[in-house]
Amino acid sequence: MMKKKKWMAAIGITSALLLAGCGSEDAGSDSSTGGEKEKENTFKVGVTQIAEHPSLDAAFEGFKKALAEEGLEVEYDVQNAQGDANNNAPIAQNFVGDGVDLIFANSTPSAQSALNATKDIPIVFTSVTDAIGAELVKSMENTEGNVTGTLDNHPEAIPNTVKFIDEQFEGKTVGLVYNSGEQNSIAQIEMVKEAGKNTDLKFVEATVSTTAEVKQATESLVGKADVIYIITDNTVVSGLDSVILVANENDIPLFVGELDSVAKGGFAAYGFDYADIGYEAGVMAAQILKGEKQPSELPVQYPQNLKLVINKKAAEEMSIELKEEWDSLAEYLE
């Protein structure tokens, strides 16, 4: 009788263990399915950026904010070319090989390399000055491809800057330092010269190919330029400290192309917040990832809310006397 009870108990224990084992497998299966579903609902976005710079970084933050507010789960693969255009192509090619859902290109060279790498994966760009001239899109309204985005060139920014220099400063020779290998820069220099046609201004140029050349190029303008104007050139802006140093030492007013460079020590700029154009690019990306729109259905957008900002400390460093009439035109950084 005792043997029979022991045998029955053994069967009970074995059955319980088998049931427990089945229960554990089901739970693991449920957990795995949940993980797979979560992974399926997560988008992979490749981020390619030409260099580290406050404006570009702000644009990326705005981009991420927009996607988060749209309720999308996103895994970002962030790659920085460290100011070397030769790094853009392999970055883009790696994104294609990885099969990302979308590429966010944060600069003109980044966007060009991304488009060269794929005609299938959606590309959303920002911090681009001339999307048509860079051959990214056919037109602002109809991009006719897998790419769209937002520009960092307000139509009135350069004309307003040139007009301000012409009307508010006695010196009429403007020094320009830029990378002649950047389509973004070539387009802006042409705009500067076009805006200067109806003024008394003359322009003297110094070109660079790397950030290491920026200081020497700027020094070459001393004695020639009454004012220096730095557009949103990625190479030069990466070496802006050198430009500011030369401007301060020689009391040359330094105009810049965006507000972050004003905060860094430039005298003045007509600009906007790069976080805003990044955010608008993020809204576009969300529409694409959700399947609501194709890139070709989203027109390229200009930045909004242009404003003049003057750095008072920089004005003092460059021996610029602030005029009372500027109070109604500009915002001041103390």
From TrEMBL:
PROSITE patterns: PROKAR_LIPOPROTEIN. CDD domains: PBP1_ABC_unchar_transporter. This is ABC transporter substrate-binding protein. The keyword Signal applies. Residues 1-20 form the signal peptide. It comes from Mesobacillus maritimus. It holds the Pfam family ABC_sub_bind. SUPFAM superfamilies: Periplasmic binding protein-like I (SSF53822). Keywords: Signal.
